[in-house]
Amino acid sequence: MTTLNSKIPKGQLENKWTGYKASQNLVNPPNKRKIDVIIVGTGLAGSSAASSLGAMGFNVKIFCIQDSPRRAHSIAAQGGINAAKNYPNDGDSVYRLFYDTIKGGDYRAREANVYRLAEVSNNIIDQCVAQGVPFAREYGGLLDNRSFGGAQVSRTFYARGQTGQQLLLGAYSALSYEINNGNVQMFTRREMMDVVIVDGKARGIIVRNLITGDIERHSAHAVVLATGGYGNVYFLSTNAMNSNCSAAIQAWRKGAFIANPAYVQIHPTCIPVHGDYQSKLTLMSESLRNDGRIWVPKKKEDAEKIRNKQLKAKDLKEEDRDYFLERRYPAFGNLVPRDVASRAAKERCDAGFGVGNTGLAVFLDFASAINRLGKNVIEERYGNLFQMYEKIVDENPYQNPMMIYPAVHYTMGGIWVDYELMTTIPGLYAAGEANFSDHGANRLGASALMQGLADGYFVLPYTVQNYLSSDIKTGAISTTLPEFDAAEKAVKDRLQGLLSIKGKRSVDSFHKELGKTMWNHVGMGRTKESLEKALVVFKDIRERFHKELLIPGTTEGVNIELEKATRVEDYIDMAELITTDALTRNESCGGHFREESQTEEGEAKRDDANYMYVGAWEYKGTGEMTLHKEDLNYENIEVKSRNYK
Amino acid sequence: MDFTLKIWRQENAKAKGRFETYKISNISSDCSFLEMLDQLNETLVDKIEIPICFDHDCREGICGMCSLYINGRPHGPDDDITTCQLHMRKFKDGDTITIEPWRAKAFPVIKDLMVDRNALDKIIQAGGYVSISTGGVPDANSIPVSKKNSDLAMDAAQCIGCGACVATCKNASAMLFVAAKVSHLALLPQGKVEAKERVLRMVRKMDELGFGNCTNTGACEAECPKSITLTNIARLNREFIFAGILSEDKY
Ligand SMILES: Cc1cc2nc3c(=O)[nH]c(=O)nc-3n(C[C@H](O)[C@H](O)[C@H](O)COP(=O)(O)OP(=O)(O)OC[C@H]3O[C@@H](n4cnc5c(N)ncnc54)[C@H](O)[C@@H]3O)c2cc1C
Ligand code: SF4
Ligand code: FES
């Protein structure tokens, strides 16, 4: 049986990573050219890893679903990226960023990983600036910072409301440079369908060419999955349409563990749901909470009048408004972490104070900021977000407060990795949102971009090389090995199997059904009953999926329904993983809120005595899994209950 | 709302395409254009017909994956938006809407409304970067940049690589796209070092890939969802002439 060894280096927290780098094994330049690395995914994590490993001299092959690497979901990140530069001289440091991240994650992340993340955060900003990423600047020509939830310092670097775009274009430019140099080969419109394991090691992948429909084999000495998060299990989320969890699920079925799947981040500031034809939800960046104030009416009558359009929000008197975050959490106010803000909004709406036609919305109001700073300043800071809002909702947010509601946004859980970002399968790595590593039970704003780039630019180049040092004599891996035959056959059989169901229901109809169950039973508030009920529903959905699914067309050429079908089939597994993990973890922590475990004031109540561990799940056949626990030890931080009051 | 849709259908790159007409009803005015197409596709799947193939991903105007020529305009009848940000409230009940793929020599159709825009990546690979590898770079604040230039660089860097500029141009020129990248980097000290090689290589690559010449019609600026301005093309021309004069290497 696989056991969990996190391989955390010995020594003092501050010296672990330096020590690791000093003692790792290296591969000399001529040998690097004999070694192939596959990277799946071209988001921040994948593109940065590919360009770095390519520049070092390894032969890199990189894959993505979209028509261009620049379109990976990372492009959509809005708000910013954290680093411990302390440019504003407000008391920030590597330790403080480390501390805030562990605390923000509700003491469910590994100390050593998080410290390393904080340590390399500054290198990321240097790297990006050198690439020409146009971060916002002050009049003196130096870089500007803003604050994000869960921090009392300004450490967030940003490029208007398009930070992810600019960072990804930076990584994409580095990738393009290496493609031009011949060190990296790019494969677009390819979907990984399986990992190939030879003698216990990851040695390649099977992909489907999404244009021709051909099934292709690619071999390598190591494989990195940088395939993003699994938020789309919920159908409606802020993720892009092509975001999916299939690569993670393939790896899981081959023996990689999935850790902490229950930790899903519900983001407080998204545009509310408005119709059942809706295909996705749109985020309004957390940075808006720097200047926007969140409120609902104090009186239910007023809320009802606003819902019925008999009263306008801006006409409601100041004393009749309940700025509930400022009221409940005076120290952090509107800048409490996301999980806290989301639950507070849900609480008000459930109690009947919500606005919007569904009653499932709260206000995010810029009136006082516009009065204080002027419309110009607000426009400069958030112009593109305001435009985006107006295009969708058809209302001018400079004049009327925005309406927002929480939505599924990010997944802290993911493929279990050790300190080297290696999964439980030797030679298989996971990076970026696809792994579980750094955010514990809740991620702070502007930290996903930091983690993706840390993994790709500054961690994997060292750890992958360390592993590959034992492969210098292996020679190229042949794609005609029986393991490749078997994997290819399994993929072809699977696709043929789905096509031959010939039922009467579309893939999307199943996805919507699954998503609704997830949101209602495994969403912001979870109970033993709701979770047990969900598990029964998922079993039923899987059975009906395999009886009633309808996919027009064949495996040849573009087949968009077939593409969606394998993903939805995998979402069912992921739904069971999330729910089983949530059921097992009978405590509330970060994004995981068990209603059974709360204080009298309705705050989340952790149970450190019983649950201070990483829950890593091993695949045991369809619908079956077993739990492995990795204990968390805090040696450099005092574990407290999170307090943002 | 009810609509009549005339949609370009083409099995694959080699097949001959044709317009097909579809009716769709009960569409909410708050629905996005792509969600309207999703609903049409659901009805096609129910009838065991092949759904309409179109590119899309983020559905919030940033990834550049969506395309579509709608009633003769790339990204449809609204300004400063991408197709995924277009909403049905921009149309009148009962309208007939014509939907075509991007049409340009450098963007061959793959299927229906989906085209191949790989050429844009190739142009970037020819020089749209600062030639550095990971590590060994100076502290970020050791490279000051005036706020003005930084803002102008950001204006240009907002290009999402959608190709609407090419699709709308009668010459199918990619000049606005190239100019956006050249400007972004030429405005920053980090990019200045190789500015001249960059502009020559990118322009040469663009020509090589079958994009047409720029004759300054300005159609690209009008249709660009990210408001990339013609000033960037002027800047590219300056850089290009300057680089041509100074160039010792043959590009
Ligand atoms: C709207 C929005 C705003 C955000 N804003 C911020 C922010 O301001 N700050 C912050 O820190 N974080 C933010 N985040 C989170 C952050 O953007 C993501 O967590 C991060 O970008 C993920 O990067 P990644 O490289 O791990 O994966 P992704 O960018 O999701 O890339 C995944 C890649 O994998 C490929 N892929 C997936 N499956 C397969 C497969 N089977 N075969 C082949 N290829 C595959 C895809 O094609 C893609 O290239 C935001 C997220 C959203 C949704
Ligand atoms: S310049 Fe404008 S139209 Fe052209 S690719 Fe860029 S964003 Fe699209
Ligand atoms: S789908 Fe991303 S820009 Fe339209």
- Helix content range of chain A: 25-40%
Find the CATH superfamily of the largest domain in chain B: Alpha-helical ferredoxin
What is the CATH T-level topology of the largest domain in chain B?
A: Fumarate Reductase Iron-sulfur Protein, Chain B, domain 2
Beginning-to-end CA distance, first to last residue of chain B: 55 Å
- The proportion of strand residues of chain A reads 5-15%
Oligomer: heterodimer
Level-2 CATH architecture of the largest domain in chain B: Orthogonal Bundle
SSE string of chain B, helices as H and strands as E: EEHEEEEEHHHHHHHH
Rg from alpha-carbon coordinates of chain B: 20 Å
Largest sheet of chain B: 5 strands, mixed
CATH architecture of the largest domain in chain A: 3-Layer(bba) Sandwich
The largest pleated sheet of chain A is described as: 5 strands, parallel
Secondary structure class of chain B reads alpha+beta
Instruction: Give the total of domains of chain A.
Output: 3
Shape of chain A: globular
- The residue-averaged pLDDT of chain B reads 95
CATH homologous superfamily name of the largest domain in chain A? FAD/NAD(P)-binding domain
Q: Helical content of chain B, roughly?
A: 25-40%
CATH class of the largest domain in chain A: Alpha Beta
Bound small molecules, deduplicated: flavin-adenine dinucleotide, iron/sulfur cluster, FE2/S2 (inorganic) cluster
Percent in strands of chain B: 5-15%
